[in-house]
Every structure is written in C-alpha cells, then in structure tokens.
Specification:
alpha/beta, TIM Barrel, single chain, three-stranded parallel β-sheet, binds fe (ii) ion
Length: 249
C-alpha cells in the first residue's frame, strides 16, 4: 500500500500545477520555437505528460525578427492540429501570440489583426534591452480598450531586477497580470531569473505560470525540475493563486 501511494505521489509531483498553458512556441516554422510539425507533435506529447490538456500557442510577434500575421500563423496552427489528430494526440489546441510592445504590434492591434486569449486577455512582452517607451500609458490604454494585459516573464528583464525592482510593485498594483516562466523557476536561464521569480511568488504577484517552451532542451529542463523539492515548494506556494485554468472559461 505504502509502495503504491509513493508511486502516485511521485507521478503527481511530475505534473505542472495547472492544465492550461498560455505561453509556448510550438507552432511549426513561424518563430524561434519548433522548426517543423514533427518536432511540434513531440513537444506537445511532452506537454501532455505534464498534465496539460489545453494549450494556447503564443508565437512571437516582433517587428524586428518575426512580423507574424494571421495568414502565416493560422495555417501553422491548422497544420499542427491535423498532425496531432493523425498522431492520436488528444489536446485542446488554439493560438494567440506573444506580442512584443513595438510599433508593429500597435499597428496590428489597431487593425484588428491580433488574436487574443478568450475574454480579451493578451500576452505582451517588453524588450529585453530596455523598458518600452511610455509602458504604463500603453498598458493603461489597453485596459481602457477592454483588454486584460498579461506581462510575459517579468522576471527575465534585467533592467527591472537589477535596477528597478520597484517597477514590479508599480505594474502589478496598476492591474497588470504577471506570467512567470516555469523555466525561470527551474533555473533554466540563470540564478537571477530564478531568484526573481521566487521573489514574485513571495509577493503574491504570480498570476500565471507558462512553460515558454521552445525546444527539447527546454522540455528536458522542465522534466528534471518537476521531480525536485524546489518544484513542490514553488507549487505549494502558488496553490489556489494561479489563473491559468480559470479565466478562459
Ligand atoms: Fe515566449
């Protein structure tokens, strides 16, 4: 009996504490994530093993590198849907995008070319170099227009955690939701991102977790992390706090 309960505890610990991923790069050939549909199917299988059954793919939309539009992204989504069906992988797949705050995104949004999450939740991303110009005003304007902005991986922006950690308080208090990467908690970047992500948990600022899965290396990092005491500690602290499975109903 004890043996079986150990086994079930072990399999539970290898799962993510949510079933809906709102941040991943698994659409084939559209950004720096999965290069082809075969890779995409294998990545989705890994995600299913973590207990995910609803996946919202969020390919990059960035002016400088991936100026993606629906006529590129939607066929990639349908290609993956067909391949998953043929492979017998049962998952609720849809797409939105991870939107770098730049002029291209502003124009696409104004033109109605941005697919949001349900309930007008929208994933936005700062530049990694510096905070976008007039960020607070932009986020405020989004809210006025009825969007619910979710900031992608705030723990990864060095100009916040090294120079202006008070920005986390300001932005979260202003109603911007924070999505932290599982990869940050796993130590998949550097110790600084991990420590910052843990601080955001302590402050109660983590509204969503996302995998930000791009490739098999990321999947291996997450697999290894899910068996650790760190993961259990993080997930215990986040219990009943995550919105991943709540806001898309
Ligand atoms: Fe991403």
């Amino acid at each position: 009996m004890a043996f079986f309960s150990f086994l079930s505890r072990k399999s539970e610990s290898a799962r993510l504490p949510f079933r809906t991923d709102i941040h991943c790069h698994i659409l084939p050939g559209v950004d720096d994530g999965s290069p082809d549909v075969e890779t995409s199917v294998e990545l989705v299988k890994r995600m299913r093993n973590w207990g995910l059954d609803r996946i919202i793919a969020t390919p990059h939309i960035t002016e400088a590198t991936f100026p993606n539009t629906p006529d590129v992204l939607d066929p990639a989504l349908h290609e993956l849907e067909d391949a998953l069906k043929n492979a017998g992988v049962d998952v609720d797949l849809s797409r939105a995008s991870e939107n770098r705050i730049d002029d291209f995104f502003r124009a696409e949004l104004a033109a109605g070319q941005i697919t949001t999450f349900p309930n007008r939740y929208i994933l936005v991303e700062n530049s990694f170099i510096q905070e976008p110009w007039q960020l607070d005003q932009f986020l405020f304007d989004l809210k006025i227009q009825g969007y619910n902005p979710i900031m992608a991986h705030p723990e990864r922006f060095h100009y916040y955690f090294e120079e202006h950690p008070e920005r986390y308080d300001q932005l979260h208090r202003a109603g911007v939701l924070f999505q932290v990467n599982v990869l940050s908690l796993a130590g998949g970047y550097t110790k600084k991102e991990k420590r910052t992500a843990e601080k955001l948990i302590e402050k109660g600022y983590v509204d969503f977790l996302g995998t930000d899965l791009h490739n098999f290396r990321h999947a291996d990092v997450i697999d290894a992390y899910l068996t650790t005491k760190d993961a259990r500690r993080h997930f215990d602290a986040l219990e009943n706090r995550l919105l991943n499975d709540k806001v898309f109903i």
